[in-house]
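To the wet lab folks,

You asked to see what we're planning to order before we commit. Fair enough. Below is the target structure as tokens, and below that is the sequence we designed to fit it. If anything looks off to you, flag it before the synthesis order goes out.
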């Protein structure tokens, strides 16, 4: 039997934490009773600098049940960094780690099949949503657009997969070798390689509390994903520059011909439209290049992606 750890990043999750701990503990006991995992398996909550009573609840849970462990980060580092902190903390303690969110939307019954696939020899098992019927029209449309956009820009991702996955200890070791500060784990994990598969599940409603990924954060997440894994936007700007250059040459030739024929007329509208169009394109190009320069700036400084203040094991 293998040792499996559940890693659960948490930020201001006091409303759901007790229920999450209860359900995950029941799931782990069930897996142990079936002989799928051993008694050394643990549930590790990662406090991502929460401002509420999240970590206090973790301490109480650990005191009542040593199987419920905790990792406290020194400050809020964001979901991806908190998840990585948990995975890197447990990679030497387990044979595999399963990451999932604390909001109880990911169906924990899929864990059984994940463990089965792991025992069959798979190093990475992705939890993939079977459908998005429960999403609002806006959420469903924007999510599908996100995946199609990432595919268009050449980012290798598993469709309808978030951060609900199992990774073996050797896959976690390989993940550690990716040193970028701008983390986008959904894009990094497929690059790890090794034998992988998928299990499907139906995503449920959030048990309590509010979503930590509003539209603004999702847009920022998408930009991070694209600019961390693809240079296609910069190439598109370059291509656009060549197209505009070609059009400019045609306009210049047209103007010269009109001047030679003595048919030149002051074109205020054309000039104004051209100035606005070229100005907006230049600003767009600068913004895209600036996004990449900002990424380089963060990477060059090589600041730590997370700092652990305390652990409870």
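Sequence we intend to order:
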């Amino acid at each position: 039997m293998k040792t499996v750890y559940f890693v659960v990043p948490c930020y201001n999750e006091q409303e759901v934490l007790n229920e999450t701990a209860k359900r995950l503990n029941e799931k782990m006991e069930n897996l142990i009773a079936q002989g799928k995992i051993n008694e050394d398996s643990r549930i590790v909550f990662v406090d991502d600098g929460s401002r509420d009573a999240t970590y206090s609840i973790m301490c109480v849970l650990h005191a009542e049940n040593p199987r419920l462990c905790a990792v406290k980060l020194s400050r809020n580092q964001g979901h991806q960094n908190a998840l990585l902190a948990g995975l890197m903390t447990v990679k030497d303690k387990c044979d595999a780690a399963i990451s999932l969110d604390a909001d109880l939307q990911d169906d924990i019954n899929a864990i059984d099949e994940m463990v089965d696939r792991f025992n069959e020899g798979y190093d990475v098992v992705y939890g993939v949503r079977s459908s998005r019927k429960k999403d609002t029209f806006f959420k469903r449309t924007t999510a599908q657009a996100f995946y199609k956009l990432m595919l268009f820009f050449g980012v290798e991702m598993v469709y309808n997969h978030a951060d609900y996955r199992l990774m073996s200890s050797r896959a976690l070791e390989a993940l550690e070798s990716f040193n970028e500060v701008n983390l986008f784990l959904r894009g990094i994990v497929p690059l790890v390689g090794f034998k992988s598969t998928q299990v499907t599940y139906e995503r449920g409603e959030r048990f309590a509390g509010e979503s930590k990924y509003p539209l603004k954060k999702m847009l920022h997440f998408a930009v991070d994903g694209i600019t961390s894994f693809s240079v296609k936007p910069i190439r598109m700007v370059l291509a656009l520059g060549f197209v505009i250059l070609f059009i400019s040459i045609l306009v210049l030739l047209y103007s010269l011909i009109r001047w030679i024929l003595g048919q030149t007329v002051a074109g205020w509208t054309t000039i104004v439209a051209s100035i606005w169009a070229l100005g907006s394109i230049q600003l767009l190009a600068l913004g895209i290049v600036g996004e990449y320069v900002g990424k380089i700036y963060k990477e060059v400084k090589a600041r730590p992606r997370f700092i652990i203040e305390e652990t409870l094991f």
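Structural context that might help your review: The radius of gyration is 25 Å. The chain has a mean pLDDT of 80.

Thanks,
Computational group
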